[in-house]
Design brief:
Layout: E1 2-3, H1 7-18, E2 28-29, H2 32-39, E3 46-49, H3 58-68, E4 73-78, H4 86-93, E5 98-101, H5 111-125, E6 155-160, H6 164-174, E7 183-187, H7 194-205, E8 208-211, E9 222-225, E10 231-237, E11 240-246, H8 258-269, E12 273-277, H9 286-294, E13 298-302, H10 312-318, E14 324-326, H11 328-337
Parallel strand pairs: 1-2, 1-3, 3-4, 4-5, 6-7, 6-12, 7-9, 8-9, 12-13, 13-14
Antiparallel strand pairs: 10-11
Helix pairs in contact: 2-3, 6-11, 8-9, 9-10
């Protein structure tokens, strides 16, 4: 489905899509309101959504579109989606699966066509069983949560990819402020997006957020975000833990990858470590989570009903590594009940 107020853009996109084997434009609308009305009774697999439109703009419409089209994947196509721009992070935070910068008039051909077709095929390629219902409102925390682990937390390591930005926001919002353990986050994003995403986390959480760099000492109530061109790891230096950014290629091909992060956190903090695996495609984090669990740490995986894609958490759950499979808010409550190590150093 195409949603763009420009007749020219809709016509060009329709011509591109309909010329591809296995692709067909099922509907095209000039406004988000008309698109929502259509989605109330019909279905689209991939939705290409503009941002700047009269009436309800694309970002305002996005949560409503996802509620109506729970199985669709949304590609936000806008001139506002320049690399590293705030609209990209906002769109992903609201549940878009991907973003792409709209080219200037007369440039809807050649490389742009190839990239657009590849993105659409990628969005539609996942097996239906891996794509779960999306909703902005997560299920209420269960009254009775399982017992997971014992003792204080010294470090929380979080892995996320597609759908992980809103999931992490929910997790952080529900984590008790008394939890002082430093948080390491590996979110699959290009390097140019990372600084803005770090600012967004800081504004939303009131915590100090760093783009991780080698030599930073882990501090209580601080969040360390992996850069887009390296894996965030921790190492013990005397009585405290420090960040180490590793740029070596890992077996799963992801950069940044959660596997080295989880493995190093398990090695340094042992039973005081926790791994949280949020929505995302693929298996990144599965091997590292197993190593963290073997070191005595606890592992939590996001439940399928709140995931955009139950790939990464599903790999952990299906391997039997997860201590619990919960929605992000329930994960936070569970860890909050588990106590806190306070400083993130001198323990492990």
């Amino acid at each position: 489905m195409l949603v763009d107020d420009s007749l020219v853009v809709r016509s060009v996109l329709e011509r591109i899509v309909d010329s591809q084997p296995g692709m067909h434009v099922c509907a095209a609308f000039a406004s988000a309101g008309d698109a929502l009305s259509w989605l109330a009774n019909d279905r689209a697999d991939v939705i290409i959504l503009d941002i700047e439109m009269p009436g309800m703009n694309g970002l305002a419409a996005l949560p409503h579109i996802l509620n109506e089209a729970s199985h669709a994947r949304v590609l936000v196509l806008s001139s506002n989606c320049v690399e590293g721009g705030p609209a990209v992070i906002e769109a992903l935070a609201l549940g878009a699966t991907d973003t792409l910068a709209k080219p200037g008039r007369g440039s809807f051909s050649g490389q742009f066509t190839d990239v657009l077709v590849q993105r659409i095929r990628s969005l539609a390629a996942g097996p239906a069983s891996s794509v779960r219902q999306r909703t902005v409102r997560l299920a209420p925390v269960a009254a009775a949560l399982p017992e997971v682990g014992a003792g204080p937390l010294a470090c929380i390591a979080v892995a996320a990819s597609t759908g992980g930005i809103p999931a992490f926001a929910s997790f952080l919002a529900n984590l008790d402020r008394s939890i002082a353990a430093p948080i390491l986050l590996t979110q699959h994003l290009p390097d140019a997006f990372i600084p803005y995403y770090a600012q967004q986390i800081a504004m939303a959480s009131k915590r100090t957020v760093h783009v991780a760099a080698t030599g930073q000492r882990l501090q209580p109530r601080h969040v360390y975000l992996a850069p887009g061109d390296g894996h965030i790891m921790v190492t013990r230096v005397g009585r405290h833990a420090e960040i180490l950014i590793d740029t070596r290629v890992v077996a799963n091909g992801c950069c940044p990858s959660a596997d080295p992060m989880f493995a190093s956190v398990g090695d340094v903090f042992g039973i005081s470590a926790a791994a949280v695996v949020l929505s995302g495609m693929g298996r990144d984090g599965a091997e590292g989570a197993a190593r963290l669990r073997a070191a005595g740490g606890r592992v939590l995986a996001q439940a399928p009903e709140s995931c955009v894609v139950w790939g990464m958490p599903g790999a952990v759950a299906n391997a039997g590594t997860a201590d619990a499979v919960l929605n992000p808010d329930a994960m936070a409550v569970l860890l909050s009940r588990g106590g806190d190590a306070g400083a993130g150093d001198d323990r492990g």
